[in-house]
Give the backbone structure.
Amino acid sequence: MKRKLVFATNNRHKLDEVREIIKEDAEIVSLEAIHCHEEIPETADTLEGNALMKARYVREHYGMDCFADDTGLEVEALDNAPGVYSARYAGPGHDSEANMRKLLAELQGKGNRKARFRTVIALLLDGKEYTFEGIVNGSIIEEKRGDRGFGYDPVFVPEGYTETFAELGEEIKNKISHRAMAVQKLARFLSDLH
Ligand code: IMP
């Protein structure tokens, strides 16, 4: 029988994406399916800390094996900010537009535009904890381009490309992204358990 793993996310899009990659090795169970409707705390100051915090929460409160992810944009010239604070860089209640405006303002006049997206997945399985990291290197351009994707996609150009994530679209992004890399590592790990 396939093992059941909760994916601690409320993002349906992520759930579908991960289910597709992992379908051979585990049955991915949503938070909704285990009747977890409360907000899971993510108050750590690192991506690893947040991913572990979310997965441990599900383990402790629902007694199920689980994994959780956390992602941040790390900009070299800004000492890896916004990092774990990427979602609320421009302050609580601000949207992606405000976050990107702040990022471009902070980088104004800076020669080093190197950045990377980093995803950490924490897996709690049979009483043990594992983490998987996915990184995509790239750079921050000076003005937004493209209208696909979400978050910082319009200002991020991945290494080896000239278009932003928001111009490249989902098909390419899902092959090369930070999240895809981390999920593939998780999938390989689960498949090697057989
Ligand atoms: P989360 O941990 O996946 O919720 O990501 C935290 C924040 O990082 C999001 O709110 C976005 O601002 C940013 N982010 C994560 N993944 C991406 C991406 O693929 N493209 C652009 N921004 C992203």
About this structure: The mean pLDDT is 95. The radius of gyration is 17 Å.
